[in-house]
Each structure stands twice: as structure tokens, then as C-alpha cells.
């Protein structure tokens, strides 16, 4: 991101007040994410975030990447019950058995997709809606779920993914750039277009 498009404090639709959060807002959220490890990471982290603040997850992100082998699907899929127990003792991450086990199951689901000749990238992006004509005006106008997020959650559940309901699916769609939910007043530019488009 160039200096000219870096939002000034108070201009962002979220993220002001913490440099890590601001950087995430400016350079990642709403920008297209592709790749098996990259999308598996976002699916996992959105699941871990459930019931917590996103900033908590961002602060633990490097540790998550370390313990899950960069979210390489083969690494994650190969994790054992002993690995789960080890991670439950690692205070650097969110120590929730259901979420850790879901991440391992999701790694295995990615490999199952590959075995059937498909990819998580293709499946995930097949649910991207048409771009909006204009950006949303206020946070009150941002939906918690959409028809597409419900369909994505259903499709992933059918493929063996866990801990990924329609609300989590929509959050992942926002984070991965399938939708651009930066507010109309936000100066960040995503692949969908210019601010206020």
C-alpha cells in the first residue's frame, strides 16, 4: 500500500488505536486471498475467533502459524491426538479443544478435496457474490450472514469442514475479499475498486 492510500487516524472503518489492527485493516481485510494454506489459515482463525475479539487472534497469529506449520494442509492433516494435547498446553494460542480438533479436521478436508480433484480455493471462491455497486454506509448495514455465506458453510460442512457456520463463513468472506465491507467513508482500496465506490 502506498503512502498516499494509507488512512489517517480516524479515517479507517476499524483498526485505529492499535498498529497491528490498523495494518491488518489497511493491507489484508477485504483484499483477495487465494491459496490452500492461506485460506485454511483464514478458516481456522475465524473459527478460533468465535467468542473472542479479532485483535486477540491477530496478536496470537504468529504462534498459530508456528504450531500449525504455516497452515500447510498436509502438516495440519497429519497432526495427532498427542499434538492436540500439546497445543492445549500452549498458552500462546487459544486453547480450545473443539477449535483445535476442528482445524485438524479441516486440514484433512482440504486433502480430501485434493484427492477428488478440487481445491479449497476453487470451492471457496465459487460462492463470491457479485460486487456491490457501492460500499455500505454504516456498520448497521453490514449483514451477519448472507445467502452466499449460508451456502458456503453448507458446502464446506458437506466436505467435512467443522466449526464454520454461516456467520463465521461471512466473516471469512469479508476477510478474504469475497466481499468488500469497508465502509463508504474508508479510504482503503481493494481489488473491487476505489474507496467510496
As a whole number of angstroms, the C-alpha radius of gyration is 17 Å
Would you give the CATH topology?
A: Endonuclease III, domain 1
- Total beta strand runs: 0
| Distance N to C terminus | 18 Å
Number of domains: 1
Largest sheet: none
- What order do the helices and strands follow? HHHHHHHHH
Which CATH-level-2 architecture?
Answer: Orthogonal Bundle
Output the CATH homologous superfamily: Hypothetical protein, domain 2
Q: What is the structural class?
A: mainly alpha
The CATH class is identified as Mainly Alpha
- Shape designation: globular
Return residue spans where pLDDT drops below 50 for at least 5 consecutive residues: 1-5, 193-197
- Alpha plus pi helix count: 9
What percentage of residues falls in helices of 4 or more residues? Answer: 40-55%
What fraction of the residues are assigned to beta strands by DSSP? under 5%
Q: Provide the residue-averaged pLDDT.
A: 92
Amino acid at each position: 500500500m502506498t503512502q498516499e492510500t494509507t488512512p489517517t487516524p480516524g479515517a479507517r472503518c476499524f483498526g485505529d488505536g492499535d498498529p497491528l489492527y490498523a495494518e491488518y485493516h489497511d493491507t489484508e481485510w477485504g483484499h483477495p486471498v487465494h491459496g490452500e494454506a492461506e485460506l485454511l489459515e483464514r478458516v481456522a482463525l475465524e473459527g478460533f475467533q468465535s467468542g473472542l475479539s479479532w485483535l486477540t487472534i491477530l496478536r496470537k497469529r504468529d504462534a498459530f502459524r508456528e504450531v500449525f506449520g504455516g497452515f500447510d494442509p498436509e502438516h495440519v492433516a497429519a497432526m495427532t491426538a498427542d499434538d492436540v494435547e500439546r497445543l492445549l498446553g500452549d498458552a500462546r494460542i487459544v486453547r480450545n479443544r473443539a477449535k483445535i480438533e476442528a482445524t485438524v479436521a479441516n486440514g484433512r478436508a482440504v486433502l480430501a478435496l485434493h484427492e477428488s480433484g478440487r481445491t479449497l480455493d476453487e470451492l471457496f471462491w465459487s460462492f463470491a457474490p457479485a460486487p456491490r455497486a457501492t460500499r455500505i454506509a454504516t456498520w448497521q448495514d453490514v449483514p451477519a450472514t448472507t445467502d452466499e455465506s449460508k451456502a458456503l458453510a453448507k458446502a464446506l460442512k458437506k466436505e467435512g469442514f467443522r466449526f464454520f457456520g454461516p456467520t463465521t463463513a461471512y466473516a471469512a468472506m469479508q476477510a478474504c475479499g469475497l466481499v468488500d465491507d469497508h465502509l463508504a467513508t474508508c479510504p482503503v482500496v481493494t481489488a473491487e475498486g476505489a474507496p467510496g465506490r
